[in-house]
Amino acid sequence: EDKVVQSPLSLVVHEGDTVTLNCSYEVTNFRSLLWYKQEKKAPTFLFMLTSSGIEKKSGRLSSILDKKELFSILNITATQTGDSAIYLCAVVLAGGTSYGKLTFGQGTILTVHP
Amino acid sequence: EPEVTQTPSHQVTQMGQEVILRCVPISNHLYFYWYRQILGQKVEFLVSFYNNEISEKSEIFDDQFSVERPDGSNFTLKIRSTKLEDSAMYFCASMGGRFSTNEKLFFGSGTQLSVL
Fold first, then answer.
1. pLDDT value of residue A110
2. Band (B102; pLDDT cuts 50, 70, 90)
3. pLDDT value at A97 more than 70
4. Which of A24, A41, A48, B75 has a CA that sits 20 to 30 A from residue A105's CA?
């Protein structure tokens, strides 16, 4: 069974701290890994990772994938209260009818205090 | 930025009633999906739809569920006879197509379905 596990499940930090969120996966036919931020309702897209070792960066957020060790990390530097959200990791499977079928982790709840 | 829109945002229904959840995917997208999230649980895949037919469905997506793309813009999820355990947030998503930058799902803001 395909599995995506995120850690920690929740994290409380203060503004200005740096956080690292983890996502490990065991899937049959990996194509890519996606990170989403879920605030109120809709998950909003952050990063798509397909190749090992290439860091994706957007402002204070960055992410990297290790396809050998089957994990990804999402880093947020200089956290702000607006970063408080659930961060979701999802794996996209390759091939055929599974195209676009995401297997999600359980999410990491990040709370940033002022 | 184009977005996926879903209506209604909340739906309350009695057990056994039929509900239709509506979605307007991003206009030039080719792949459409329904996911759901039961409170406190993971987001789960329900069904994918491409070229006017279901590509894949999960074991959750039993005979009580159906999807339709009745015209060029709408994508609907129908639950024929709702059960208490169908209560969840239902997300519609769409994706442009295969290859590179098109391969990311955009989610709508969801329909919170409550079955009483």
1. 98
2. low
3. no
4. B75
Q: Judge contact between A33 and A21, C-beta under 8 A.
A: no
Q: What are the chain B neighbours of A48 within 8 Å (beta carbons)? A: 103-104
Residue B50 has pLDDT above 60, yes or no: yes
Write out chain B residues lying below 8 Å of A102, CB-based: 35, 43, 45, 105
Name every chain B residue with its beta carbon within 8 A of the beta carbon of A92.
Answer: 103
Give the CB-side neighbour count of residue A54, counting CA atoms within 13 A.
Answer: 8
Strands A3-7 and A19-26, how do they pair?
antiparallel
Q: Which of residues 45-74 of A touch B (CB under 8 A)?
A: 45, 48
Pairing of the two strands A19-26 and B53-57:
unpaired
